[in-house]
Amino acid sequence: LSIIILRMAKIVVGRAPRAAVSGSPRGLRARQSPRRAPRHHPHHRTRPTAPSSSSSTTASVSVDRLDEIEERACVDMANRLQAAELSVPGHGGPVKMTFVGPDGQVAGDKPVLVLLHGFDSSCLEFRRLFPLLEADFEVYALDVLGWGFTDSRGQDCGPKYKSGVVVEFLDKVVGGGRQVTLLGASLGGAIAIDLAAGRPDLVSKLVLVDAQGFQDGIGALQYLPEFLTKFFLEVLRSVPLRNAANKMSYFEKDKFATKDALNIGRLHTFKNDWVSGNLSFIKSGGLAVSSLIPRISQQTLVVWGDNDEILPKEDKFKFVDAIPKSALRIIPECGHVPHLEKPQELAFYVRELHDL
User: Dihedrals φ, ψ of 151, to 5°?
Assistant: First the structure.
């Protein structure tokens, strides 16, 4: 969606950012889809997953129009949504961040895995991946500030606070002092890069899934008058544009780019603060993390759908060229969203990164 609205802005304003292309592939051999079943480690110590007393968490969050959704995995995940009230220093007031976390007790020695979705999406895009990881990880799928079902309460939803609220979540809900693996998909990858480079004390490993990292900023859309930006946002919410983005996201379009998938992708757009959250992000100039990528010191897994139609194909090689401790896994016959189109393969590679 971010790429599509940049193209729209180019038509109106006459200019759009051009991604830099530099370097050559390192020659890293790309692993293909796994042929063996994943292994599960035995559970040992268990601990409750109740949030820290310093955050206020509700038992559930209501999602409007959920009764129109057919996919059981989406309904099940939406019914597990919780909200934590979090405050970021300098942000003006608390926000209510929505997420899906562990259901009941988890093994005390499980690695913590935090999932970050892409531009103007929600944690529901992990509905097929999340259940595949729960046996081996303490998993949290977050709704990024300004998107998903998180209530931004009309406050700043720029890059600084998108990352800042995640830091507060790790401290108050996951538990202070615990390192996590961040998995960022598309623009969620840019947020994960920002956190991995800026707070290496919090991030032990990084998984970049068809991640946006070399396309800095929101481009020409940032400079449009507010009334015109709001018009673009209404177009962004529209069925025709969502349908176009839906089809661009997959390799097997007939199988995955369904009306139900389109409806799932629009659920969060009916929130009262959807326009204000997107407007705030666009006017902030967006995320610019390309200069941070060489600073990533964590072990990093780059996973790429071989048939991604949204991001440049060379980006996957640029990531492994720039990040010292990186490996590349390419998933064939897969588009921009491996977590939706090939979740079994992605789950396998995430476990492989953790020697599970």
Answer: -95, 105
Strands 138-142, 299-305: pairing is: unpaired
Strands 180-185 and 112-116: parallel
Q: How many CB atoms lie within 10 A of CB 167?
A: 16
Distance CA 58, CA 41 (A): 31
What type of residue sits at position 306? D
Rounded-to-integer distance, Cα 114 and Cα 137, Å? 10
Q: What is the pTM of this model?
A: 0.86
Give the up-direction half-sphere exposure of residue 201: CA atoms within 13 A in the CB hemisphere: 4
Q: How many residues does the chain have?
A: 356
Exposure string (b/e) for 123-149, b if CB count within 10 Å is 16 or more? bbbbbbbbebbebbbbbbbbbbbbbbb
Q: So which residues are the catalytic ones?
A: 186, 308, 336
The residue type at 132: L
Could you tell me the strand order of the sheet in which 203-209 lies?
56-58, 82-86, 95-100, 138-142, 112-116, 180-185, 203-209, 299-305, 326-331
pLDDT in tens, 273-322: 999 999 999 999 999 999 999 999 999 999 999 999 999 999 999 999 99
Architecture per CATH, domain 2-14+43-353, reads as: 3-Layer(aba) Sandwich (3.40)
Distances (CA, A) of 152 to 58, 162, 184, 326: 16, 10, 21, 34
CB 112 within 8 A of CB 177: no
